[in-house]
Each structure stands twice: as structure tokens, then as C-alpha cells.
Specification:
By secondary structure, the chain is α/β, with parallel strands linked by helices. It has 11 helices and 12 strands. The strands form 3 sheets. The protein has a 6-stranded parallel β-sheet. A 4-stranded parallel β-sheet has the order 7-6-8-9, sandwiched between helices. It is globular, with a radius of gyration of 21 Å.
Length: 354
């Protein structure tokens, strides 16, 4: 059994991006090292530890050109509460961080990333809260204990992806309801009438929004609602390959299987597409597949995925804008900001000929 390695804590004022650029690796690789992920080699871990030492010796903590002391915003991943590490969030975090850092720098602030939010509810989180004046939390599941910790320290915050119904926290996300509506509408126009939804975990607010868009599209097309065509898997594994495979098998085992499936992510869609092909179904001749996110994997499959494109870089930018506006006393226009999405039609969807 491969066991996690000890977690590393970044010194104040040194970000994951600083380390990644210093040794020539990706931000996601640095994130895995810091969280103690067991897949990281000893050589890479040693390189990251060396970079931390070198940067700490030469850096002036929490100071950069154009950044005033005390103008530091924290960015953390609320998916990781309880010590759970999800490698699948690497790409998402890197994109959000890109937008967040660009806006923060333009307004005279620094972004301080904290890779493992579970430590924020432990003694190790003290240095984070002593450094930042506001926090951006990312993830479809916003861990309540992390929100409580931020509020206990009296810090304003913003959420990227998810939403908190308990607190009036500004949040930014893609318009997943609209995106799902567009996906179903596209399939209806191709002649499909039995359209299934493989959704994310019920814990995620975006899953509720996605289901709403699916139901609205069916209603507008005068199609009946069949509960058997809606599938969920709760828990963090709900977005994993195994869940995508299992939920697709369940749909294909129905007496009257769907002719098209909309998935909550490209990863789920790729898993489902593989199951369909294993069953001897051709995509899109026998069944159409739609993903969500437009990750690189959507273009690496055969056939390439029709999917809903989102812009997470802009999510990070707008979340930091909203947090800084709040810090500077500007009123919020709305609590939840939904960013535009776009349906990208490729080869995994086609006319229904049945």
C-alpha cells in the first residue's frame, strides 16, 4: 500500500507558481508535493523542497512590485477538507489561479495559495490567517468547516464554483444550468427523445443547477420526464471514472435505453463513451455523448467530444475582483455571478435515425 508523504507548508509570500517557475514544473505538480500525494517521486519532492529553501532565503515575505504590505488574498481549495486530495482538481485550480493572480496584481494585491484547506482548521492554518485579509475558496463542494474557520477569523471571502446557502458569500461559476439546457436542446434538434443525464454528486450546488437546466430543456421540448434517465453518485467519487462507467452501464441496461447522454464533466463522458463502445455501440451512430468543461481530454478521444466550454480563468479573475471590491467597500451587484458558457459541437453527437 502506497502511503501519503508528509505535507509541506509554504512560507508566507511564496506561492506554488513561484516554485513551479523556479524549477520548471507545473503548478499542479507542486500542489501534489505540498499535499503529500503518494504518486510524487522522491526526486520531484526534493526539487520542490530545495526550491522552497532557496526562495525563502532570497524572498521578502508577502512583498512584490506594486504590492503593499498587508494586501494579501488567500486562495484555497475547499474540496480538500478532511485531508481528501483530488488530483482531478489540478487543472481547475491552475486555471482559476491564473485569473486570480492577474487581477490581484493589477490592483496591487498578492495571491497566497494554500494547497490543502484541511490544515486551515488545524494549528498549521494560523500562518495563513495571520497573512491574508480575504479568502477565495474553490470547488463545487464548499466544505462548511472551512467557511466556519474563515468567518471565525473575521475575513471576507468569495467562492469559485460552488455556493453557500447558509452565508451571503459572493460566488462565481459558469452558467451550468444554461450549458446543460444548450446540450439537451442540441440533442433534441438532432431528433433524440430519450436523453439521459449523468450528473455530479448531489452535494455540489452546480449539480442542482445542472439538473434544473436539463429538466427545463425537456419541458420546453414537450418531452416527458423519466426519473430512470437521471443518475447521480454522491461523494467525491461521483466525478470519477468508475462512477461514470457504472452510471452508464445502468442506463444501457434499461429496458428502453437512452439514445443520448449528457454528462456533468468531460471525464465522466469519456468513461461513459468507453462503456458504450465496449457494448458494441457506435458513437454517434448508435448513441450520442455530450461532455461538460471542454478540458483537453475532450479533444483526445475518438470521436472527439461535443461539450460545453467554460472559462475558469475568468472565474478566478471575477472572484478576486469581487473580493477586492468588498474589501474596498464597494457594494455587490449580485450574490452569485454566472459566467457565460458555450456549446462546442464535435463528432460525438449525431442525428437519431431510430
Amino acid at each position: 500500500m502506497i502511503r501519503p508523504k508528509p505535507e509541506l507548508v509554504l512560507p508566507t509570500g511564496i506561492s506554488q507558481r513561484h516554485i513551479a517557475e523556479h524549477i520548471g514544473v507545473s503548478v499542479s505538480t507542486v500542489s501534489r508535493v505540498l499535499s503529500g500525494h503518494p504518486s510524487v517521486s522522491e526526486r520531484v519532492r526534493s526539487d520542490v523542497e530545495r526550491a522552497i529553501d532557496e526562495l525563502a532565503r532570497h524572498a521578502t515575505p508577502v512583498r512584490q512590485a506594486g504590492v503593499q504590505p498587508g494586501k494579501v488574498i488567500g486562495l484555497t481549495n475547499s474540496h480538500m477538507a478532511g485531508g481528501t486530495y483530488l488530483a482531478d482538481t489540478d487543472t481547475m485550480l491552475q486555471e482559476i489561479l491564473e485569473g486570480a493572480e492577474t487581477v490581484a496584481k493589477s490592483r496591487g494585491y498578492l495571491v497566497y495559495t494554500w494547497s490543502n484547506s484541511s490544515q486551515l482548521i488545524e494549528e498549521a492554518g494560523a500562518s495563513f490567517f495571520d497573512t491574508v485579509i480575504g479568502v477565495v475558496m474553490t470547488g463545487g463542494v464548499v466544505a462548511p468547516e472551512i467557511i466556519e474557520a474563515v468567518h471565525d477569523h473575521g475575513l471576507p471571502c468569495a467562492i469559485v464554483g460552488g455556493r453557500s446557502l447558509r452565508y451571503d458569500i459572493p460566488s462565481v461559476s459558469g452558467d451550468v444550468s444554461r450549458g446543460t439546457y444548450l446540450a439537451v436542446q442540441h440533442l433534441v434538434e438532432l431528433g433524440h427523445r430519450r436523453i439521459a443525464l449523468v450528473n455530479g454528486p448531489t452535494e455540489t450546488y452546480t449539480s442542482q443547477e445542472r439538473r434544473a437546466g436539463y429538466l427545463e430543456a425537456l419541458f420546453d421540448a414537450s418531452l416527458p420526464i423519466d426519473a430512470d434517465l437521471i443518475r447521480w453518485r454522491d461523494g467525491f467519487g461521483g466525478f470519477g471514472h468508475e462512477s461514470g462507467q457504472q452510471m452508464t452501464r445502468e442506463l444501457l441496461d434499461l429496458d428502453q435505453r437512452p439514445t443520448a447522454i449528457v454528462y456533468a464533466s468531460d471525464k465522466l463522458a469519456v468513461s461513459g463513451q468507453g462503456v458504450c463502445q465496449q457494448r458494441g455501440l457506435q458513437v454517434p451512430e448508435d448513441i450520442s455523448i455530450v461532455g461538460f468543461d471542454d478540458n483537453p481530454v475532450a479533444r483526445a478521444t475518438s470521436p472527439q467530444l461535443t461539450t460545453v466550454r467554460v472559462d475558469r480563468v475568468s472565474w478566478g479573475a471575477r472572484a478576486v475582483e469581487r473580493l477586492i471590491d468588498s474589501l474596498e467597500g464597494k457594494p455587490l451587484v449580485s450574490e452569485r455571478l454566472l459566467m457565460p458558457v458555450e456549446l462546442v459541437i464535435r463528432q460525438s453527437t449525431g442525428l437519431f435515425s431510430g
